[in-house]
# Entry
Amino acid sequence: MILNKELWEILVPTTRRKDGKTYAVGYHKIWDKEVERISGGMTLNVPAKGRWHHKGERVEERMIPVRILCTEKEIDAIIDFTLVYYDQLTVMAYRISDKVILRNREDSK
# Structure
């Protein structure tokens, strides 16, 4: 079955922007539930180190890459929620694939 959804990846911060403290697992789980509500599910990957420049300042942060099968409208809602929930200045999401095939194994009897 070919879906009209696309595979996206979004980068989720592991630390608070204002004080650098690590987000508790329970805090992330609230985000997870909202993303599941919007899209139906996700795949969480191990955190990765990110480095970039913002207004002339070098920023280093561990990020959690999260893959989500959803529509563009749904990823827009997830980005908006992520910006506010994690108090971010910027959130990056990118389409990994626009062709997704889901195949369920039939029960063999």
Remarks:
- The helical segments are 25-39, 72-85.
- The chain is about 25% helix and 35% strand.
